[in-house]
Design goal:
14 helices; four-stranded mixed sheet; 2 domains; about 425 residues; elongated; alpha/beta; UDP-n-acetylglucosamine1-carboxyvinyl-transferase, Chain
């Protein structure tokens, strides 16, 4: 499956252009099903998850090509309403297709989605929201069967600000006559990107980025060209890498406002973070001060997708640091691997308490999920000696070319 070989202890200097956002482009691919005309998506990250989503679109009857950061999708014919189980089990984001397939076909059949094993990630919030719009839902033999023949616009209040549920309602409501509203909507920047894409196709969505979204349904949508936002999680990973290793990094192509919860913590330590337009510059000594408590929350709180990476920083921070995971119940699988490298941490339920050590030491460690794998790469960059990170395919689900990016700024890392 591939491994990373890392020789640690090198500071990071230089510039990285941040790839397009995985968590933005996947629901945008789903939204491409809402029109019969061609859509072009630029700044599209070249990831295994993106290619898997494209393959699902092809299985439904659409054409989808991805080359050199440009995706072209045309869903003139959507021949099927069934998302194949073998593909759905590869990617969590297949669930986003429920809303768009229902909008185009009036019914949908999908297997329970797969992806990284970081917790239960129940989809009951998705299904409840769809039911409130009049969708009939039946769960049978591992499949979700939906019928939208009686769908209608309505006012929905989510029990939890679920990103996927918010996006599914936006997709279905875009082609549903009348006005649908979502209260307690998720506020992630990727939802704003989806709103902008739907509106570029002629949709009428407003309020994304706030807890209240309004969607006025239209009869049809048209083709469009759209540029995906920069990936805030990839950028955050590299910022933490600079804080760990020391040096100076300039990240281009990402909105600094999307990383305020991280940059605030880095700036209170030994790092200097300066932002302007779509550029973030970090200067770091590599000597990590104690972190303020890190508590993962829905946006604009600290992102769960950066929890594993900041755990590495906490492991070498002076004194004690506390990391609390509020989103996913099994997202600390990277901690035993960090302990192999010399970290001192105690875990109880969803709370990890770190007593910072002066150094980590190279070891052979495993990736168990996307962000945990990225965290182990960061640990290897900081560690003395040589680190081998197994199962690189997890990392490749979300990082276009982490070896290219890191070697370009002075790291000693290669894939073997």
């Amino acid at each position: 499956m591939g491994r990373y070989l890392i020789k640690g202890g090198k500071p990071l200097y230089g510039e990285i252009h941040i790839q397009g956002a995985k968590n933005s482009v996947l629901p945008i691919f789903a939204a491409a099903l809402l029109t019969e005309e061609k859509v072009t998506i630029t700044n599209c990250p070249m990831l295994t998850d993106v290619e898997n989503m494209a393959e699902i679109l092809r299985s439904l009857g659409a054409t989808a090509t991805i080359s050199d950061g440009v995706a072209e999708i045309k869903a003139e014919q959507v021949a099927s309403y069934e998302i194949p189980a073998c593909l759905a089990k590869e990617i969590r984001s297949s669930i986003f297709l429920l809303g768009s397939v229902l909008a185009r076909k009036g019914k949908a059949k999908v297997a329970y989605p797969g992806g990284c094993n970081i917790g239960l990630r129940p989809i009951d919030i998705h299904l409840k929201a769809l039911k409130e719009m009049g969708v009939k839902v039946e769960e049978k033999e591992g499949y979700i069967l939906c019928d939208a023949q009686e769908v209608e616009a309505t006012a929905i209040t989510l029990d939890y600000p679920s990103v996927g549920a918010t996006e599914n309602v936006m997709l279905l409501a875009s082609l549903t006559e009348g006005t649908t509203t979502i209260a307690n909507a998720a506020q992630e920047p990727e939802i704003e990107d989806l709103e902008q894409f739907i509106n570029a196709m002629g949709g009428k969505v407003s309020g994304a980025g706030t807890p209240f979204i309004k969607i006025k349904g239209v009869k049809s949508l048209v083709g469009a060209e759209f540029r995906t936002m920069g990936d805030r999680i990839v950028a955050g990973t590299y910022l933490i890498g600079a804080a760990l290793c020391g040096g100076e990094l300039t990240l281009k192509g990402v909105n600094p406002e999307h990383l305020l919860s991280l940059n605030g913590k880095l700036s209170k330590g030994s790092c200097k973070v300066v932002s302007k337009n779509d550029i973030i510059h970090i200067t770091a000594s590599g000597k990590v001060e104690a972190l303020d408590d890190v508590v993962t929350q829905p946006y604009p709180g600290f992102p769960t997708d950066l929890q594993a990476q900041i755990c590495v920083l906490a492991s070498v921070a002076k004194g004690s640091s506390l990391v609390v995971e509020n989103i996913f119940e099994t997202r600390f699988k990277h901690l035993p691997e960090l302990i192999k490298m010399g970290a001192r941490v105690k875990l109880k339920d969803r709370v990890a308490v770190f007593n910072g050590v002066d150094d980590l030491y190279g070891a052979e460690v495993n990736s168990y999920d996307l962000r945990g794998g990225a965290a182990m790469v960061l640990a290897g960059l900081r560690a003395k000696g040589t680190t081998i990170v197994n199962d690189s395919h997890y990392v490749e689900r979300g990082y276009e070319d982490i070896v290219r990016d890191l070697t370009g700024v002075g790291a000693d890392i290669k894939k073997i």
